[in-house]
Amino acid sequence: MKDKLMNNLGLKVLSVVLAAILWIVITNVDDPVGSKDFDNVTVQIVNEDVITKLDKVYDIVQGETIDFTVEARRSVRDDLKASDFKVTADFTKLSDVYAVPIEITCPKYGDAVVVTGGKDQRMIVSLEELVNETFKVNINQKGEVAEGNFVGPTTANPNIITVSGPKSRIERISEVVVDVDVTGASDSFHSVGQPRVFDENGKEMDVSYIDFNENYVAINVDIYKTKEINLQISTGNPAEGYVMTGIEYEPKRIVVAGKEEDIRRIRYLPVKYNISNATEDISEEIDLQEELPEGIIIVGEDKTAVINIKIEKMNTKDITIWPGDIDFKNKSTSYSLYINTTGPMQVTVMGPEKELNDITRATLKPFIDLADFKNGSYTEHINFDDLMVHSQVTISPEVSFDLALLD
Does domain 226-312 sit in CATH 3.40.50.300? Predict the structure, then answer.
């Protein structure tokens, strides 16, 4: 009886062993173990304050992303995603050569997933001094406002920003910029933007390892109305003995902008240019913005006018005329005219040289207007018609004549 029981027990043990073997065989056939690769998985950094407490910043030289291989049964493997893994570099384990071991775990599946390739990788970092630098916030306008409008003053709040980061990167920063889109704008508005940094070559820099004391900047944009107006330049007179013979300036019209209530009031821009002591030609640029009333600005980059003024010295010229050259205008047919003056008379003319060259006895056209004269004897200064623009008679001779009523 005892022998029979022992024989049955042995059979039972054998059955269990055979069943286990059979289960393993079936499992390996239906749910086999296999490998799966994961590439460019981002390594998460923990305890990075270990570095910041040293007033240092780090830059990842190697190991920002890693590749690794795992083994798991097909039922697990088929569902595995990169996000199922926790890939970390703990900076408390930073070595003297600035290497940090990278740990790979799979919290979701635990021991059902085994890392077989890439499990001994390191993150290599470099340490650098942490510095802070302040920069003016520049506003970069993008787009075009609606027709008839102009972007007036723009202000940033804050207008100065502190940038922190590795010394080598901060030293490369030339400008901090915030963009504002004005496309189609016809009224003033507010906007919010994130700062961007550029180097001295105008190339935008990566801000991954740069911190701002303000991550957002508020922008206020004033939209002005525009208007085209005339430019009017007045000069006065040059130094004594000189005359202004010509003035040219450009532009003749300018486009200005301002708040609607201000722009309505301006009709033209008067500019007074003083030439009171001028004795020679003038060629100069005038800053038109300085001439405009407060709140009005010039549209465009060129805010000047070019003025060219011709200044000439006044010379004198003596011209001899005869009584017969005089035109006695408006003489009544009821009177006879007797000229008592005989011989030549001298006329002195003052003007710029070029004009004086063109003034002769033939062009002087001397005259006396007799419209209001009655019977009698007269001595009158001679008048002259059609002198040049800048010339004048300074010495005019007198002529004596009689008007006698006809019988």
Answer: no
Please give the model's pTM, rounded to 2 decimal places: 0.62
- Tens place of pLDDT per residue across the chain (407 aa): 555 545 555 555 555 555 555 545 444 556 899 999 999 999 999 999 999 888 898 889 999 999 999 999 999 999 999 999 999 999 999 999 999 999 999 999 999 999 999 989 999 999 999 999 999 999 999 999 999 999 999 999 999 999 999 999 999 999 999 999 999 999 999 999 999 999 999 999 999 889 999 999 999 999 999 999 999 999 989 999 999 999 999 999 999 999 999 999 999 999 999 999 999 999 999 999 999 999 999 998 889 999 999 999 999 999 999 999 999 999 999 999 999 999 899 999 999 999 999 999 999 999 999 999 999 999 999 999 878 888 889 889 999 999 999 87
- Buried b or exposed e, range 58-89, using 16+ CB within 10 angstroms: bebeebeebebebbbbeebbeebeeebbebbb
Fold of 322-405: RNA Polymerase Alpha Subunit; Chain A, domain 2 (2.170.120)
Q: How far apart are CA 77 and CA 113, in angstroms?
A: 8
